[in-house]
Amino acid sequence: MPSLEMQNKLLNIFESNKLIQMPFISRQFESYNIPNGNREFTWKLGTKYDKIKYIVLSFQTARDNNYLNASKFDNCGLEEIYVELNSERYPYECLKFDFDKFNAVQQCNFAKEFRNSYYESVKDYIFMEEDVYYYYYPLLVFDVSKQNDRIIQSRPDVTIKASFNKNIAQSTKCYCLILSENVVEVKDNRVKVVSI
């Protein structure tokens, strides 16, 4: 609860009908049950906001019960993955890796850069050890903040395309967190969310 002095200041601002803008990052979370027995999958999903900044993906197999650690993610033998925003590919060259042979340094670095950028932290901050990333938290981070004008002027459709080195196991889910930049505008006691 704000102090009485702060409450009065806020009340005066609202009563003056000035435009108040507050930037924030919105989060949209989606999950998808991947059909088992395939080595590839495509997932198309709509978005709620216009200016997408990051897309974070992860996979889990058979973690819907109380017996397995739900905070651990699986690499599921992932070989290649990329994201499309209205048919524009991110990254331009497909990410290729082999988690079993510790061959995903680029993606691990993307996750570190995301952490530093999102939390505006010092670059030397230790994100996590690489072996912990490979075994427990293989999060796939896509920085899609640099978009062309065609994408920026519309609400983008997101398509995720991935291929695996083995058939996808039963009860495998893909999780997607979409982070978008927005502004809340308050004027005349009306609230409106505006994309940046």
UniProtKB/TrEMBL annotation:
Pfam family, one: DJR-like_dom
InterPro entries with a match to the protein in the record: DJR-like_dom (IPR049512)
Domain Double jelly roll-like: from-to ranges: 10-184
Protein name per Swiss-Prot or TrEMBL: Double jelly roll-like domain-containing protein
